[in-house]
Please model this.
Amino acid sequence: MILAHTLTMSDVRAARPTEEAMMNEEEIVRIDRELWDAWNARGPERYVKLLDEKWVAESDTVPAPVRGRDGAREFMKMYVPAFPDLHFHVDHTLANGEFVVSRYTETGTHRGILDERRASL
Model:
């Protein structure tokens, strides 16, 4: 499955002491890469430490938007056991100002329960 994801400055914790300090494109691309690495390592704490409390994501696997670090942590804890061999491969990353877009390929075998959906195998 090939998908895309967008990350903005407001999605990540400020890497500098003040909120007014803007991250450059290189920094936000690095953080985006760390987010994917945290997913591949199945590390919810590693993942959420990079996110801002105002972070919001939507997924077709849950009925409502996922909000904040606690929501992201719970989403990962639900998703990873359902796909124990889950892996994200970032195909392309584009940065422009405060935005980063990643085109990625997600692979994994549905072996557990995900939002009341039983395994496909």
